[in-house]
Design a protein that fits this description.
Layout: E1 2-3, E2 28-33, E3 36-42, E4 46-51, E5 61-69, E6 72-79, H1 82-90, H2 92-104
Antiparallel strand pairs: 1-4, 2-3, 3-4, 5-6
């Protein structure tokens, strides 16, 4: 599974059914080419993933805050593609590790 696949070689460039900035939160578009599935999902911003092991969508939802009135928010269930649910479930430790490495890495200057 890969994030940010839009500019990669072999990624479909079809725009007939593409998401736009005005697409509703939770909108999903996908294209299957052989064993690969390319998924685009609209959250606050467009999210793109590529996977060989997941179906595009199997009914999962995530909780998201949406504006209910001018000054209030409501929590609503938003449809979410299966590859993104799997990423969020399994990649938290890697992201945390990358974050901690940034805090504790030291830069050493040497002179020869």
């Amino acid at each position: 599974m890969k994030f940010g696949v839009e500019n990669r070689k072999g990624c479909p460039r079809e725009r007939g059914n593409a998401l736009t900035k005005k697409s509703k939160r939770g909108s999903v578009r996908w294209i299957r080419e052989g064993s690969l599935i390319f998924v685009k999902w609209m959250d606050k911003h467009e999210v793109s993933v590529c996977s060989t092991i997941h179906p595009a969508f199997s009914g999962e939802t995530v909780s998201g805050r949406v504006r209910a009135a001018e000054w209030s928010w409501a929590v609503r269930k938003i449809p979410c593609p299966t590859p993104i649910v799997a990423y969020n479930k399994n990649m938290g430790g890697v992201d945390l590790s990358d974050q901690l490495i940034q805090y504790y890495s030291s830069k050493r200057k040497t002179s020869h």
